[in-house]
Amino acid sequence: MTEFSWPIRVYYEDTDAGGIVYYANYLKFLERARTEWLRSLGIEQDTWLAHNIGFVVRHVELDLLRPAKFNDELRVSVVVERLKRASVEFTQQVLNQHGTVICQAQIKAACVHLGEAGSAVRAVPMPTEIIEVLKRAS
């Protein structure tokens, strides 16, 4: 599948007292890139949320290779490794302004039905419209 890339600037709020990006914020950067990737394909998550369909991260492997610092300009990539009926597996990288990979991640996101208030969230097959868009994007 083709690679998608999204720019991120490191803000002061993303860093710890030493000016280094706090590790959990890489998860936010990865999430933003996946959201923008979906948007670039015409898949607006709020439209599907109105039908109680969403995606939840089921598994994450995160390898922090080098630190990012306040005011760095980063690029976050998204590559679909495996598309299944009810889940998508991604490889994502965060690169610094020099093109060096500073974070590598493997993400598995599952499609879920969110149900009504108080009911259980359950895994469901992705809507055909989403599957077709993702297949065309590969």
Automatic annotation (TrEMBL):
Domain of life: Bacteria
Pfam family, one: 4HBT_2
Keyword Hydrolase: yes
Listed EC numbers: 3.1.2.-
Keyword Hydrolase included in the entry's annotation: yes
Keywords, alphabetical: Hydrolase
GO molecular function, one term: fatty acyl-CoA hydrolase activity
InterPro entries: 4-hydroxybenzoyl-CoA_TE, HotDog_dom_sf, Tol-Pal_acyl-CoA_thioesterase, YbgC/YbaW
Transmembrane segments: none
Top EC class, one word: hydrolase
Family (UniProt): Belongs to the 4-hydroxybenzoyl-CoA thioesterase family.
Stated name of the protein: Acyl-CoA thioesterase YbgC
Species annotation: Pseudidiomarina piscicola
Lineage: Bacteria, Pseudomonadati, Pseudomonadota, Gammaproteobacteria, Alteromonadales
